[in-house]
Amino acid sequence: MGGKPTIVVIGAGPYGLATAAHLGRLGRPVRVFGGVMDSWHSRMPAGMYLKSTPQASSLSAPEPGNGLEDFCRIEGVEPFDDFHPIPVEDFVRYGEWFQRRLVPEVENAKVVRVDPLPKGSGGMFPRFLVVLDSGEEVAASAVVVASGLVGAAHVPRLLLELAEKEPEVTGPVSHASQHADFAAFAGRRVAVVGAGQSALESAALLREQGAEVTLLVRGQRVVWGGPPAPGRSVARRMAQPDSPLGEGWSHVAVSRLPLQFRRLPAATRLWVVKQVLGPFGSWWLKDRVDGQVPIATGRRIKSAQLSGGEVVLSLETPVAAATRSAAAGPHDRTLVVDHVLAATGYRPDVDRLDWLAPELRHQVRRVPGSASPDLDPWFRSSVAGLRFTGLAAAPTFGPLMRFVAGTDFAAPRLAAGLS
What are phi and psi of 253, to 5 degrees? Predict the structure, then answer.
């Protein structure tokens, strides 16, 4: 490698693979650690579909011919369109296909520690010692954290208190990201907390697996996206232009101007990340939920207690009688279930990356008002040589980083910065 220092990429999901592909094209020696598409294998139940459209679901590649459409053509998979969502299983196959073609050097090894090395003279010297579960130690000049959902699952404190240590699938409470299969919940009572795609689709899958499901929603209604409109007029395209994240000028802004987004005040950025593309369900999911799953709207959980192996949830009385739930009707204040599934989103937190040495975690400057790393325009953190991409970069660059489409911005820019 001509003596060039090694770059380590932690994570082999969409952002890790795309970053490594661009680094490889630039001739940088890179080692990628992690299971290929691991979170998509282990943190999403069988039967789920992508929320992203096919046009926004290709990984960024340094050369053409490696998109989702190319995968379908070469592998004989029927092409996807806006009227047919992408099954998670097929997207995983696409990610694995992308990896075999562009990042064959991925090592299915777990990083257990990243320690700082004594400072050298200049940027070409290793800054980090990366320790693997095999015991191997790798000196790296730069580390790219592309660990995706790992350490980011958010469970409200009130529900966390139900767990002895951490939420788990066999305990009284779990997070939606912990499930690869819902079959074990057949015949059990499950409360799903949340109103986003993950909550709605989890509720549908649980019901279809034979569980008795109640969906608890804080807002007064569940929001559903509309179906795609074939043959949109010029006037509508001008009023509601297309973007990788959907129609509308707000979606265009956050998908095409991530560098400008970074210049906004931190509080504004965090608000936009939360509000734009906030909790809603895809149009194709509505028939599997509406009228099929009891939905209790306007309900906040006041308390959660264990009683004889059951979970007793005390609920606020809804402000408006918008509840359609037989299990938790307008006048019911208590819901008793066997398990609570928290589909309550993700909040990146540097301190939860326990494999990152404490002194490194302490030095990472955070976006004010969050636990996410504050990044420069090249995805650099305040620790020299340490970069973050994907979900952890959303509070800096916007909601685009929550979607596969964000790899088109992040991967080439991050790789160029490292070159």
Answer: -60, -50
Q: Mind spelling out the 3-state secondary structure of the chain? A: CCCCCCEEEEEECHHHHHHHHHHHHCCCCEEEEEEECHHHHHCCCCCCECCCCHHHCCCCCCCCCCCHHHHHHHHCCCCCECCECCEHHHHHHHHHHHHHHHCCCCECCCEEEEEECCCCCCCCCCCEEEEECCCCEEEECEEEECCCCCCCECCCHHHHCCCCCCCCCCCCEEEHHHCCCCHHHCCCEEEEECCCHHHHHHHHHHHHCCCEEEEECCCCCCCECCCCCCCCCHHHHHHCCCCCCCCCHHHHHHHHCHHHHHCCCHHHHHHHHHHCCCCCECHHHHHHHCCCCCEECCCCEEEEEEECCEEEEEECCCCCCCCCCCCCCCCCCEEEECEEEECCCECCCHHHCCCECHHHHHHCCECCCCCCECCCCCCECCCCCEEECHHHHHHHHCHHHHCHHHHHHHHHHHHHHHC
Separation between Cα atoms, residue 113 and residue 327, nearest integer Å? 47
Q: What angle do CA 282, 89, 143 make, to 5 degrees?
A: 95
Tell me, what amino acid is at 133? D
Nearest CA among 7, 8, 9, 16 for reference residue 391? 16
Question: For residue 364, what are its two tokens?
Answer: 């990472």
- Residue holding tokens 């003279």? 121
Contacts of 158 (CB under 8 A, 6+ apart): 301, 303, 304
Q: CA 255, CA 248: separation in Å to the nearest integer?
A: 11
Q: Which two tokens stand for residue 156?
A: 């409200």
Strand partners, 373: 366
The two tokens of residue 126 are 């290793």
The answer to whether residues 331 and 182 touch, using CB atoms and an 8 Å cutoff, is no
DSSP 253: H
Residue 52 banded pLDDT, cuts 50, 70, 90: confident
Q: For residue range 144-169, what is the model confidence (pLDDT) as tens digits?
A: 999 988 888 999 999 999 988 889 99
Distance of alpha carbon 6 from alpha carbon 16, whole angstroms: 15
| pLDDT at position 329 over 60 | no
